[in-house]
Design a protein that fits this description.
The protein is an alpha/beta fold. It has ten helices and twelve strands. It is globular. It starts with 8 loop residues before the first helix and ends with a helix.
Length: about 350
Amino acid sequence: MNVTRILPPELFNLLQSEDGFLIAAHLNPDGDALGSAIALAMALEKMGKRTLLVCRDAVPEQYKFLPEYQRFYTFDNVPASGVDIREFSTLVLVDCNEIRRTGMEKSPLANLTFRTTAVIDHHETEKAFGDIRWVAPEIAATGMLIYYILRELAVEITKDIAINLYTALVLDTGNFRFENTTSEVLAVAAALAEAGAPPHIIHRELNESWSEGRFKLFVSLLNTLYIEDCIAITAVTRKMFEETGTTTDDTETFVSFPKIMKKIEVTALLREDGPTETKVSLRARGGINMARIAESFGGGGHKNAAGCTIKADIETAKAEVLRKVKEQMASNHCDTEV
């Protein structure tokens, strides 16, 4: 592989010199966050370090094939675990770059203090958190950053580590279909397959292991499809979850399906989290920047994949999203014309 990524020297020194690492994933964790965090923890422990993996939310069912996913504690479970969390003096945020995205400030861990804080992330909407930061928006997945860290630290990439990192790549490249699938991504994927990650099994676990309830939820979602000006919007209500016996975890990847239609440029999935709270996932192709739209609502993400929460009912949120997307599309068109 011709591409070489050099991690910041201060991050290399931190991982080499410190001992106790509290590694935190973002709330509602996906395959990139989970796979990256687990792989980093496994590597550091191979170096003789101590690690503790934490997340506000439990590992979703579809990711319980990941080796050592059981390492994760939820914030609520840490106090009762018997673990002395004060032994972990270095905080590392993985796949996010602000503490708010972890939910830690509203948890039993809110009053923790750390000697050093570090960030390893690839999101475009960058915040100022972290004494040491490696934020690389041009990289397709945080799992790739972890891969380069392990190479720099000369840690062997075992089969279990490879499975976690390959899963991270698969999730954030949409099964290697998105525009961020570069030759560099494929080279790293090949190296991970060589290290033991079985692509066909990981694909099966991620894409061919739906429960009957999840499939029924997907059918209900398709019945909500609304299309306007190359924008496709779908919605999931709390009633739909109740009727199918599913949870919010079951909606992952649903947002991308309307892009199967040739004319669709932007897709939005609206999820009713409460009477006046709507979670919004955004996807796009081409030059339309979803991160800017999400950031206008207090969220963030990547150019072609972003998310936010709107404090409004689902119909109001739908109208707001449509308005913002149309504004962004018009602006993008004007920029192209100039």
